[in-house]
Amino acid sequence: MFQRPGSYMSSEYAKQLGAKLRAIRTQQGLSLHGVEEKSQGRWKAVVVGSYERGDRAVTVQRLAELADFYGVPVQELLPGTTPGGAAEPPPKLVLDLERLAHVPAEKAGPLQRYAATIQSQRGDYNGKVLSIRQDDLRTLAVIYDQSPSVLTEQLISWGVLDADARRAVSHEEG
Known about the structure:
174 residues, mainly alpha, 434 Repressor (Amino-terminal Domain), Arc Repressor Mutant, subunit A, two-stranded antiparallel ribbon, 9 helices, 59% helix, Lambda_DNA-bd_dom_sf, DNA binding, Transcriptional regulator, BldD-like_C_sf, BldD_C
């Protein structure tokens, strides 16, 4: 299938912009619904989520308003403005969903719900493994009230993450 050169760049740009939006939101400890609540409905969770996934284009005006809402300069939200430039991608974080199913719900309930939400959003129901992003791990660390490295060790001890995840977290925190 032929794809116009510009369309790849724009969808890639939208995904990078979305990743920046998600990173700012999670740094502020906000869920998508938290954004909706804090903005008193001005920013709908479903809309912000679609911006973050790159599924929906955001106008310059709306981006400026969102930057204002988060209290950050607009350039912080734009792709390609990462201090120091992009390095090699960190190792992937892969959850073992089969092992997760055997962890008691009182321990793993939040992680199980989070994983189910990601599967639902991606339409990914293979049921064996699920790749998560650094942002997801940071969000889960907030939910569990632990640092990403402490949570990573806990997930490794449950058998849900493999030991390679340590490299991803040390890459992130280093």
